[in-house]
Every structure is written in structure tokens, then in C-alpha cells.
Amino acid sequence: QVQLVESGGGLVQAGGSLRLSCAASGSIFSINVMGWYRQAPGKQRELVAIITSGGSTNYADSVKGRSTISTDNAKNTVYLQMNSLKPEDTAVYYCYMLARHGYWGQGTQVTVSS
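The chain above was modelled as a monomer; its predicted structure follows.
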């Protein structure tokens, strides 16, 4: 059984920074992609950033230049460093992992106050 456990969310003022972490555990054979999605109230879940096993990254335009996704492969952990946060970044952030199957974390709340 695979589990994704996120941490690092919280309340921050606009212009501040947060670092989200997501650790994967369980029967993991080969991770192809890890990433972050977010869902704001009343909106659909959207991609924030992903990183492949080869190190290729892709970012949503809304966070490009303000966020950095990285991994620690030895720990099966993905990080999302977010800087210059804006109130519109407020959402529940979900970790995603694609291995043999796709897996989601439980979500961590990020709230940016103006």
C-alpha cells in the first residue's frame, strides 16, 4: 500500500514563502512523475508543478518564476518551494505520484493573507 504524506502548509502573508514536502512510502517500485496540484474553493483541481524521474519540470504559468519543484529520490520525497506568495495561491495543495498507478496525498492547506 502506497501512502503520500504532505506537510508544510499553513498561513502566510502575501509576499512570504512556504516549502511543501511530500513523502511517499509503501510498495513503490519505480516513480515516473511526482508533482503538486491545488484546488481553491469552487474551482477545479489544477496543476502547479511536476517533475519526472529524469528531472524534467513543468510549471503552471501562474507560479512560474516563483516556485521550484525538487525531489530527494533516496527519500521518495518531493518538495515545492513557493516564494512571493499571493492571495490567489490560497488552496489545498495535493501531492501526486505516478508509479505503477497514480496516487494522491490527502492535501495540505495553504492560505495567503493580503
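The chain has a mean pLDDT of 96.
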